[in-house]
Amino acid sequence: MLEFDGLCKSYGADRVLDGVSFTVAPGSMFGFCGANGAGKTTTMRIAMGLARADAGEVRWRRRPLDQALRRRIGYMPEERGLYPRMRVAEQLTYLARLHGLDAAPAARAADHWAERLGLGERRRDQVEKLSLGNQQRVQLAAALVGRPEVLILDEPFSGLDPVGVDALAEALLEQVRGGVPVVFSSHQLDLVERLCDAVGILARGTMVAAGPVAELRRREAGRLLRVVVPDAPAGWAAGLPGVRVASERAGDTLLELAAGADDQAVLAAALRTGRVTHFAWREPTLVELFREAVAAPGRAVAA
Ligand SMILES: Nc1ncnc2c1ncn2[C@@H]1O[C@H](COP(=O)(O)OP(=O)(O)OP(=O)(O)O)[C@@H](O)[C@H]1O
Q1: What ligand 1 atom has the least distance to the C-alpha of 51?
Q2: What ipTM goes with this model?
Q3: Which H or E element spans position 198?
Q4: Ligand 1: which residue has its CA nearest to atom 3?
Q5: Whose CA is nearest to atom 1 of ligand 1?
Q6: Taking every annotated instance into account, which residue ranges of this chain make up the domain ABC transporter (predicted)?
Q7: What does the alpha-carbon distance between residue 90 and residue 67 come to, in Å, rounded to a whole number?
Q8: pTM, 2 dp
Q9: What is the pLDDT of residues 126-161, one digit of tens each?
Q10: Centroid of ligand 1 to alpha carbon of 40 (angstroms)
């Protein structure tokens, strides 16, 4: 297990992390989500020894991370850290050697990852001459080239085109299949939902929701009701007790019901306006869970 356990961190009077805990099992992918400034980068930097926690620790296989263990981690920092003048293959080989590979396997790993991430033709280019997206691919290759036991990636998908996203997603899934625990932060919740076994949503330094996406969605089901009444006048549901209109478009209405609100009263109201063609509870999407978790301080959801 990769365990983040009770991380606390303040910068001056600012409490940036307030007891952040989560675990990532070998062979699983954890999506680390949260608003800008929530503390994701700080959490990852603490894991990598680039910032010091005031309390708490990060463990891999029950051992607190030290510099030797960190060498086994493939890390992609938010501030991209490449040597701008080095050529792609040379750089990747160098980094693989820093992770302990011999010269020949390091060169092979560099070629392999350059190819896998679509950089085959750029192998001999200097990094600073690459487009931003391609520099990003080199940075990802740099995290993967040392045969990591663990991957910690800070916004690895940002700036990639859809082909790059697919190449990286496939590479990460392959690592997961090989037993590597992967943590990545992202604002691309569709990707998180597609790829991750579990997610954590951080808000103001606290994990406000954590668990498998399907369980979080199920747990929050029973509050969103979709009602389709093609001929209903706009605003038909406004004012029903315990009901908030989340969205309404051409007779297709999404309602959020407070605990104890009467769904049958909603149905009766809908029927008074016309023929009801759809009436069903709907599980929230990850985006809706995110908005809810980030908007409501103190409301923790764990699956
Ligand atoms: N070295 C530092 N000194 C002072 N404050 C810092 C420092 N590093 C981070 N912070 C503050 O800590 C908070 C959390 O920042 P962090 O970068 O961890 O958030 P994040 O969740 O990664 O955000 P984003 O999604 O925007 O990348 C922010 O308020 C930030 O300003």
Answers
A1: 1
A2: 0.96
A3: strand 198-203
A4: 11
A5: 11
A6: 2-229
A7: 24
A8: 0.85
A9: 988 988 888 889 999 999 998 899 999 999 999 888
A10: 8
